[in-house]
């Protein structure tokens, strides 16, 4: 065995030695904790940026549609599509945010809480569980749950506002024609447009209020189920 090989092996196992040294472990955990908090804050900022963008776009769209009676109400259907696109982006960002947030909370529960008030850890195998999650990261919420949370938080209200504005636009703000004619698209009768939109909003309501328990069912780069942090 060469000196180079020996150094490589020592380098590979240097972190493993910390696991058997309480002082070294306790000095390492705060650095790890600060890193996870920073990741959580960055993920939260990305979510906020997406929300700010979609609110700005929808506000501008509503201003244009309501300011000019000649503007077609079908422009609001574009707003519904835009909301759906941003919702899908934000749901994915929320899953990453929740991943980092869950790790922060995990350390708080099993390290800092027990250090301040030693009543025992919440998870008896917390070091093994955290180590496994760092080796094989898994989302802690499903895509459906992420969509549901973002809908209840902000997007549901935006969908309602756009939908109500569309109804007002095809009825009250277009008195010179029937609502079905105002809602019609080229080659598609207004009744069909209203029916499809109703189905879309029904699906949104089902997703928003679908009963589900917190679970981690998808790995970040795969579909292997995870059991950590089920509540």
Give your account of this protein's structure.
By secondary structure, the chain is mostly helical. The chain starts with a helix and ends in a 22-residue tail after the last helix. It has seven helices and no strands. Among the domains are: 17-67; 143-213. The chain has helices at 3-18, 22-67, 75-116, 126-135, 143-170, 179-183, 190-209.
Uncertain regions spanning at least 5 consecutive residues: none
Provide the structure class: mainly alpha
Q: Kindly state the number of beta strands.
A: 0
**SSE order in H/E notation?**
HHHHHHH
Helix content: over 70%
Secondary structure tally, helices:
7
**Distance between the first and last residues' Cα:** 50 Å
Q: What portion of the residues fall into strands of 2 or more residues? A: under 5%
Short overview:
The chain is mostly helical and 231 residues long. It contains 7 helices and no strands. The chain starts with a helix and ends in a 22-residue tail after the last helix.
List its salient traits:
mainly alpha, 7 helices, single chain, 231 residues
Topology (SSEs and partners):
Elements: H1 3-18, H2 22-67, H3 75-116, H4 126-135, H5 143-170, H6 179-183, H7 190-209
